[in-house]
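thought: fold this chain, then report.
action: predict
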Amino acid sequence: MLLRLKSELQSIIKEFPNLKMQIYIGNWQTDFLRFYKSQTNYNISNNRAYASVGLYEDKKNYSFSVCNPTAELIKEKIEQALPILQKLPPDPDFVDLEKDTRKAAEKSKECNITKLPLNKKVEILKQFRDAVQPYDFDIYGTFICNFETCYILNSNGLDKKVESSPFYLEVKAVSNKNEVTVLECFGGENLDKLNVSAMVNNLTTKVKNAQNEVVDVEAGDYEVILAPRCIGDLMSYYSWTSLAAASIDQQDTDLVDKVDQPVFPKNFTLFDAPKHPDVVNKNYSGDGFLVEDLPIFENGVFKNFLVGNYYANKLQMKENGNCGDCLVLKSGETSLEDMIKSVKKGLYISSFHYMNFINSRESSLTGLTRDGTFLIEDGKITKVVNNLRFTEKITDVVNNITAIENKAYTIPASDNYGAFNISAQSMPHVKVKEFNISSSTKTV
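observation:
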């Protein structure tokens, strides 16, 4: 069906020689399971066909989307859009649609929805439930599998196939005694890497630590160990602002003119790595550019901005198509155990929540800790700490990294709405000196 529609749409593109068109057609499937108080809450299965069309003429543009597309419906929508397009203001910076017609080797991906049906998901969740219930904890969270096939077409001859089947498992254990929460998650595309036993053991260890006394700490600078989820969130926020080519245009980055210059310590190497085995792999950017693994910081030296088609044309930069959703931080040489042993008094922070920029150009932001903040005393985790507010600059956090773990973890993310878009990073723990805690929330 998609192949026939693709052929028909390529013919329609030729019928409008004065228009530039970018068309995405695809079929998206999901199996979304939510669980609550250690029981499955609901399961949503969906299968839908879609088309998204962008029209460009004289630097004016208009876009629309349809479900259950046919060639006749899309042509009708294009003709209806033409008089609207004429009335729109032009974008003086628009140059052209993507011209990169290179193709990656096409390889069909196995559908993880089929490999991981509902009964298998439930069996996995029972293992988590049985492990934490003796400690009077219940589990909450989501278990998502997607499968999508999409074609990217445009007036410049692009004809590219995108196929993916990511999955996402997030398990939160919540104490029925005092509502202390701890979290374990995993995702990506390769189900063979899903080690349920290891996840259950990790969550159980966190639950045991969560049995300790709950305390407050005073505001101030602390030596902290940031879990992979934390440093991954900081790198994502940094890539959305300072590392994107759009930030140059908006004068929202301090990295202009710093390419090939040392910016961070030599132990810091960050890639956008769409070919890495632990992330959700990508062959193309959203525009259809053929992407490769891209060094962003290499031994502390800034190497590349993330440059898509629009800003490559506008700013006369070399396009790479990377967008920072496959971030990989190079592991270091220190074990997590040794990191904890080296801390006289400090904090282990499991995850961040509700972060907002104060000044994105300076990379300063504020946010809350969540899902397990622990006090470290004399090299041991001793107490649970109420959730904290922190205020920091991402650049200061990186410059204050004193150790990086010798192991990396897959950290998935999901929108949990719409198409449940799933991505993944590969991140280790990091130890950071002088991390600023601004207040306690007085809540777990």
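thought: worth noting. The CA atoms of residues 25 and 51 lie 4 Å apart.
final: tokens above.
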